[in-house]
Design brief:
The protein is of the alpha/beta class. The chain folds into four domains: 3-237, P-loop containing nucleotide triphosphate hydrolases (Rossmann fold, 3-Layer(aba) Sandwich), CATH 3.40.50; 244-291; 314-514, 3-Layer(aba) Sandwich (Rossmann fold), CATH 3.40.50.300; 520-623, no CATH class. The protein is built from 20 helices and 20 strands. It has helices spanning 43-50, 84-88, 94-107, 113-124, 127-140, 155-168, 185-197, 209-215, 234-268, 278-291, 352-359, 394-399, 415-421, 426-429, 438-450, 468-480, 492-498, 518-553, 561-590, 595-623, and strands at 3-14, 17-28, 32-36, 58-63, 69-72, 173-177, 201-205, 218-223, 226-230, 314-323, 326-336, 341-346, 367-372, 378-381, 404-408, 411-414, 456-460, 484-488, 501-507, 510-514. The strands form five sheets. A six-stranded mixed β-sheet has the order 5-6-7-3-8-9, sandwiched between helices. The chain starts with a strand and ends with a helix.
Amino acid sequence: MISYLQINGLTKSFGDLILFQDITFGLNQGEKVALIAKNGSGKSTLLNILAGKEDYDTGNIVFRNDLRVGYLEQTPSYPKDLSVLQACFHSENETVRLIAEYEETIKKGISGKLLDDILNRMDASKAWEYEQKAKQILGQLKIHNLDQKVGQLSGGQLKRVALANVLITEPELIILDEPTNHLDLEMTEWLEEYLGRTNTSLLMVTHDRYFLDRVCNRIIEIDNKQVYDYKGNYNYYLEKREERINASNADIERANNLLRKELEWMRRQPQARGTKAKYRIDAFYDLKERAQQQQESRNLNLDIKASYIGSKIFEAKHVSKSFGDLKITNDFNYIFTRYEKLGIVGNNGTGKSTFIKMLLGEVEPDKGTFDIGETVRFGYYSQDGISFNESMKIIDAVRDIAEYVDLGNGKRLSVSQFLNYFLFPPEKQHSYVYKLSGGEKRRLYLCTILMKSPNFLVLDEPTNDLDIMTLNILEEYLQNFKGCVIIVSHDRYFMDKVVDHLLVFHGNAAIQDFPGNYTRYREWKNEQKNIQKEKQEKPNQTLPAAKRSTRKTDEKKKLTFKEQKEFEELDAEIPKLEAEKADIEAAMSSGSLNTEELLAKSERVSQLIKELDEKSMRWLELSEYL
C-alpha cells in the first residue's frame, strides 16, 4: 500500500500546555481517517501543522513526493476583493486555473482569438468534464451568485465556498476541519455520499457521527497527549475504546493498590531512605503518577432539577412572517405541550432561526402571536454565541451566572463540579478564557446557559464546534432534562438521540409536523418517493397493454353492467378519499395534534395513498373502454 503521509515523534506545546507528545502515525492511499479528541486537545492545531500553517516542537512529517493535498480550515479566509467564482477556483492546479480563466472570459463577454485560444487549451487538457463536475459541486453546495465578493459572505457561506474550492481541485489527499459545519442536511448527505464513493484519501475532524461512521474506515484518537489507532468505523471505535479504557482502569486500580502498600513502606521506613532505597523511592513516584491518571470515560447522570413549569407552555396563533418574497410562516398554528422535545430541521434559508427568534420575542411576526405560559423560563443557546471577557478566569465566567446548580431534594452542585462534568477539570477552571480553543468557548457558553436552571431550552445549532465527548454529555443531559426542549440542528445523530418529533421547514412557509426522529423521517420520505415513482410508472405500463389488447380485437371492448357500476362507484369514491387525505394533511400541519394523534393520522395517510393508487389504477383501466 502506498504511503501518503508519515508522522514520527511529533510534539506540540504552547508554553506549559502540551497538546500532544511524541505521537507517531501514518496514512496510506485510499484510507479515510477521522481524528477524534475533546476540544483543546490539538485537533485543529495538528491539521494546521500538516498544512504548513503552524510550527511544531520536535518530530518530522513526510508527505509522498508530488502529492496533491487540499486543506479545508475550520475558519477559512480569502482576499475580500475576490469574487466567489475566483475563490472557488483559487488553486495552483493548472486545469482549475484554465477553467477559471474561461469562466472570467465568458462573464466579460470576450470573444474572438482570445476565446478561441482558451477553448483550444480546454480541449487539449480535457477540461470540459472537469468544469462540469465543478459546476455540479457548486450547485450541490448552493453556491449560485458567483459574482458576489468574498467580503460580503457570512461565515457559513465562506465555509461552503472553501469546501467547493477543495473538492474542485481534486487532490489526492483531503484534510478537512469540521466540513459539515454550516451545511444543511441536504448538503451534508450529498457530501457524505460524494466522499464515500471517491477514491480520494481523507484526514478529517468532524463531530457528525453518522457522517463519520458512513465515510471513515479508520479512527485516530488523541487522548492524554497520545494517539490511539482504530481500524474501523465509529461503531467499531466505540467498542474498542471501551475495552481500552476498561483495561486502563484496571491497570490504574492495580497501581492504586500498589501505591497504598508503597505509601505504608515509605511512612514506616524513614531510616531506609538512603542510597540503597533510592530506586524504590523513584519507583514510588512513578507509581503515584500512574495511579493519579484520570480517564474521560464518563457515565454521567446529570439529573439536574429544572425550575417548575406549568401545563401551559406556548401557543402559536395564526403566525405569519415574511421578508419580501421570502415566506417564513403563513397562518401557522401550534400548541406546544409539557415536556415536549421538538427538533426543527430544514435547508438553510427556510426560516428556522427566525422562527425561534419570534418565539423568544427577538423578532416580531407580521401577523399573529406567540402566547407564552407564565412559568416558562427560556434558556437560549444562540448560533452566534456570546462574547466573554477574555481576561476572566473560566470559573468566574460561570460563577457570575450562579453559585450552584439545584439537583433537588436539597442537593446542590457547585460551579466547579458542574464545570468538571462538562470536561473542564479543576486545574483548567482557574485558567483564563483567552487560552481556550473555539470549541472550548462554545462548551463554556453552553455551561452558562444551563447554569441558569431554565425549564425551556431553545438550542440553535448547539453541536457546531463541540467535540464528540461533550455531545455525549449534552445528549444525556437533555434526555434526563425535566423541562421542554426545542433544537435546531443539522446533526442527525444528535437529533435522533434527543427529540421525539420534528417540525420540517420545506421553505416558502411550508412546515410539516412529523411524529418521530430524523431517521424515521428520512425513511418515511423515501417511502413517499417510491410510492410516487410507482404511481407515475404504472399508468405507463397499463395503458399500452390496454391499447394492445384493443388492437388485437380490432373492436372496442364494452363494459359489462357490473364493470359499469364499479366505474361509477370509483368515480364517486376517489374524490372523497382525496378530500379526506387533504383534510388529514392540513390537520397534521396545524400543530394542534398530540403525538399519538399524529401517529394515527400518519398511518391513515399511508393507507389512503395506497388505496388511492389502487382505485385510480382500476379507474384508468375501466375508462379505456368507455
